[in-house]
Every structure is written in structure tokens, then in C-alpha cells.
Design a protein that fits this description.
Low-confidence stretches: none
Number of helices: 14
Mean pLDDT: 97
Number of strands: 9
Strand content: 15-25%
CATH architecture: Alpha-Beta Barrel
Radius of gyration: 19 Å
Shape: globular
Distance between the termini: 15 Å
CATH topology: TIM Barrel
Strand order of the largest sheet: 1-2-3-4-5-6-8-9
CATH superfamily: Glycosidases
Bound molecules: ligand G3I
Oligomer: single chain
CATH class: Alpha Beta
Number of domains: 1
Length: 319
């Protein structure tokens, strides 16, 4: 078959998947798909703070270095995920980040060590992840409590200082269409950008539920255009479409349509340069592990065979 990667190259589109270290090293079918079907890898878990800095100042680069080397050998780009998040934190942060000064020191050091280490091999980062609630207010986390809302622009500034050439993204879920959360996010990011904060792009995760009747391709396309008009790049960063809530023989078709529609919205938006799915095959998916074995949210089944959704986006890229 014609790989997605080959087809996406013609559209100047990065087609990506999140990648897990263990699966990459141990599952040969997974490695084969990872290296042939995709032109971008997002580090699914190994770059989160608990994995990267398990003890203060003891950076653990081994796994991500290996992944980066394999990616480079196959001419695959890497998306660094994630520098700043309220989750996946090592225990020591709770003890050490006690006030604004200590939290800023810790966060700056974390960001700048990683961005510097991967200068030349990682050109795109999710700098800040999931900072907003659905109602548009900022989520409580240790960085907000100690530093305040400034932790967001500061994170971008620190990353930019370490590598002025890197593409720096804000990344969140539930922000694929206009709503309270996405409007608050875009307003704040736009204001910071106008003040000169180096925010290059907005990642819309796109964790979809096939049973969600509010889905609208037109509203997604409109929203992508709003992001572009505000001067940002757009990326689909974590797409999957879970099926467990849909009691319907048509589930596979609906899933395929969702993938096709989002791909189409991305292709129709000049500023959308990346379409990334959150996992390759259903047997290595957070939905399977954390929600339901009936979720089956990805492009390949548990035997690493392409599903209808795969063929549908393949056709979308062809024509
Ligand atoms: O690998 C260990 C295993 O050795 C251990 O026995 C087992 C017991 O809990 O845990 C395994 O690690 C789990 C890991 O996923 C690998 O499956 C962690 O507990 C679990 O917390 C971790 O969950 C990840 C989650 O983020 C939290 O960091 C998911 O894989 C990952 O897909 C998910 O990704 C997030 C994005 O980063 C941000 N956007 C939402 C997205 C989905 O939640």
C-alpha cells in the first residue's frame, strides 16, 4: 500500500503518531508501522517531567535519545511532549516548588535543559499542555499556584531562549471548535503573542468520541481558520476516535468519517501543517488501557492491520 507518509509529503503535511518507547523497542509490527507510515513522532510519555527529571537535576535522556536517533535514521521529525503540565510530575516538585522563586527556577531549568539537549534534533515542542478548564478559567496546578498565570508566557520565553529556532506550541483538548474554553485560550494566547511572547502554534488534541453528536466538520474548519487569522500555526496533535459509547453497527464508518473530516479541515487550512494521531494500533492506546477495550480508537487494529479509518484518510490524501 501507499504509506500515509508518502502521500502526506506531497501535501507538505507532517503525518504523525504518538510513540511509546517500550512498544517501539519490543513490538516489531509497531516499529515497522512507526517508521514507514509516519513522518513525525510525538514522544507519548518519555518526555514528561516525571520521566525526564525523576530526581532534581538528574535528567534522564536515555530513552528519548534512542527514539530521536531512530527517528533521524528514518528522516522522521520529533514533536517534544510536554515541557510544562500540571500532571506527570515527579514527587520532588511538590516539595521543592514552594513559592514563586523556587518554582520559576525549577521550571526554567527543566525547560532549558531539555530544549538545549535536543537542539538540532527536536524542532517542535508542546511547551504548555492543558492549562484551561472547560469554563475558560485556568486549571489549578502547582505552576499556577506558585507562579500565577505568568507561568505560561514565561515557559515560552524560556524555551525560546534555549532554542530560538524551535516551533513552540500550546496544546489542549476540547478546543477543536469555538466554545468557552477555546475562546478563552485563543484570547489569552493572542494577547501574549501581541506582547511579543514567542508562541508559534496551537495544538488541538482531537480526542473524539464517535457518539458525540456535536461534531461538526464546518465548525472545526472555521475554528482552524480563526487560529490562523490570529497568526498561529495549527496542528492536530493527538487525534483518536473512541467507539465504546456508540451502540451502533455503523461505528466504524462514523469513526472513518471523523478522521476524514478532520484531515480535510487540516488540508483546507494553510496554517495546519501536522496531523498526528494518539497511537498507532488499538493494542497500544490509552483508551484501551484507561477507558475501554471496546474503544478501538486508532487507524490500525490490535493485529496492526489497517482499518477503514486508515483507508479513508489514505484516500483523502490521494485525491
Ligand atoms: O508503563 C507503566 C507500566 O510499567 C506500569 O506497570 C503501569 C502501572 O500503572 O503503568 C504504566 O505506565 C502508564 C503509561 O501511561 C503507559 O501505559 C502510566 O501509569 C500512565 O499514567 C500513562 O498514561 C499516559 C497519560 O498521558 C498520563 O501521562 C498515557 O499513556 C498517555 O497516552 C496520556 O497522554 C495524554 C497526553 O500526554 C496529553 N493529552 C491527553 C493524553 C491522553 O490522556
Amino acid at each position: 500500500r501507499q504509506s500515509l507518509r508518502k502521500l502526506a509529503d506531497n501535501d507538505d503535511l507532517r503525518i504523525g503518531s504518538s510513540i511509546r518507547y517500550d512498544a517501539l523497542m519490543e513490538d516489531t509490527a509497531y516499529q515497522e508501522l512507526a517508521t514507514t507510515e509516519f513522518s513525525s513522532w510525538t514522544i507519548e510519555n518519555e518526555m514528561k517531567m516525571d520521566a525526564m527529571q525523576p530526581e532534581e537535576n538528574a535528567f534522564n535522556y536515555v530513552k528519548v535519545d534512542e527514539m530521536t536517533e531512530m527517528a533521524q535514521a528514518h528522516d522522521i521529525a520529533i514533536r517534544g511532549h510536554v515541557l510544562v503540565w500540571g500532571e506527570a510530575l515527579p514527587a520532588w516538585v511538590q516539595e521543592q516548588a514552594v513559592d514563586r522563586v523556587s518554582a520559576e527556577r525549577i521550571l526554567k531549568s527543566h525547560i532549558q535543559n531539555i530544549v538545549t539537549h535536543y537542539k538540532g534534533s527536536i524542532d517542535t515542542f508542546d511547551v504548555v499542555n492543558e492549562a484551561y478548564h472547560d469554563n475558560g478559567t485556568l486549571r489549578d496546578n502547582i505552576w499556577l499556584r506558585t507562579i500565577g498565570p505568568d507561568y505560561i508566557p514565561l515557559a515560552f520565553q524560556w524555551a525560546h531562549e534555549a532554542n530560538p529556532d524551535a516551533n513552540l506550541y500550546y496544546n489542549d483538548f476540547g478546543t477543536e471548535m469555538s466554545n468557552k474554553k477555546s475562546e478563552a485560550m485563543l484570547e489569552a494566547l493572542s494577547a501574549w503573542k501581541e506582547e511579543g511572547v514567542p508562541i508559534d502554534g496551537i495544538g488541538t488534541q482531537m480526542h473524539l468520541d464517535a457518539a458525540d453528536t456535536r461534531f461538526s466538520k464546518d465548525r472545526i474548519a472555521e475554528w482552524f481558520q480563526r487560529i490562523e487569522d490570529a497568526g498561529f500555526q495549527v496542528a492536530v496533535t493527538e487525534m483518536d476516535v473512541k467507539l465504546q459509547n456508540l451502540n451502533n453497527g455503523d461505528a466504524k464508518n462514523i469513526q472513518a468519517e471523523r478522521y476524514r473530516d478532520v484531515m480535510e479541515a487540516c488540508l483546507d487550512t494553510a496554517a495546519c501543517g501536522e496531523f498526528t494521531v494518539w497511537g498507532i494500533s488499538d493494542n497500544h492506546s490509552w483508551i484501551t488501557e484507561q477507558e475501554s477495550a471496546d474503544g478501538k480508537p486508532l487507524l490500525f487494529n490490535e493485529n496492526s492491520q489497517p482499518k477503514k479509518a486508515y483507508h479513508t484518510i489514505q484516500r483523502k490524501l490521494l485525491f
